Structures are given as structure tokens and as C-alpha cells.
Amino acid sequence: MTVYASIIGAFAVQLGPPPPLISVVELADQSASAESRAATELIIGKLQPGYVRLRRSEVPAAALEACRTDPAAAASCLSEALSQAGAGSGHVVLITLEQEGDLHWLCVGRNAGPFTASRQSVSLGPLTDLYADGESEVLHRAAACLTYAGNQSGW
Predict the structure, then answer these.
(1) Is 1 exposed, middle or buried (0-12, 13-18, 19+ CB in 10 A)?
(2) What pTM value is reported for the model?
(3) Which of 37, 72, 95, 112 is the most exposed place for a label (fewest CB within 10 A)?
(4) Domain coverage including residue 46
(5) Contact 23, 55 (CB under 8 A)
């Protein structure tokens, strides 16, 4: 009977709605190391398809470069730049930062909703031991960052 319950449970999961689709423009802070960029790519790979589905945005990264000049206003600048570039619903900018040896993500959507700093600016963990808190914890924080930004973009 346990086997049937497992099969039915797995089948029910397959019938659920697909994870959200997010269009991402990836930017790495100039101080980001090759290690932090590789860790970001690994996390993005592990997020799909269970947490989110990602695709590259057609918005060029060059349209967002001016927002690098003032880190304090980066979120509002990026959000406005996405809107001006014609980004649609679900478009997100993902900035990879390295702060004191920790991998940090800033996820920003266009101006359709409010920016939630506690969810869209997250530390994923130390690069020396990224999964110290457990892999699922890191993936949950990363997925939350992207989905809150997707919500900000007007899903």
C-alpha cells in the first residue's frame, strides 16, 4: 500500500501548476570573484525546474549599467531602468555580489510593485561553505529572492 501512496503522491505533484517563469538579466558586481559567479550559476541550475523556470531576458545588460554608480539607490534605479527598457511582467535583474566572503543576491523587478528588501536582498552563505545551512535553505532563499522580484514585476 505504501508503494501506491508514493506513486499517487508523485503523480499528484506532476499535475500541479508549473513553477513560475522568470526572465532574468544577470549582472555581477565588479568585485565579484569567479567563484561567486560559478556559485550563482550552480544555484540557478539547481533551482530549475523545481522552484522556478528561468530564461534570459531580452533586456540588454547595457541598459542597466548606469545603475551601478550609486549602490544605495540601485534597487530603484534598476526597477526604473527595466521599465524604460520595456521589460514585461516577470522580468528581473539579478545582481551577484560578494560581501566579506559571502555570496549575496540582489533581485529587482520593474516598478509594478513594491521592493521587499528583506526578501529581495539576500545573503546565500559563505563562499567557503555555501551549503553550511543546508542546500535546501540556500535554494529557498534564492528562489524567494527571484519570485519576490517577479512579483515586483507585476505577475
Answers:
(1) exposed
(2) 0.84
(3) 72
(4) 19-152
(5) yes
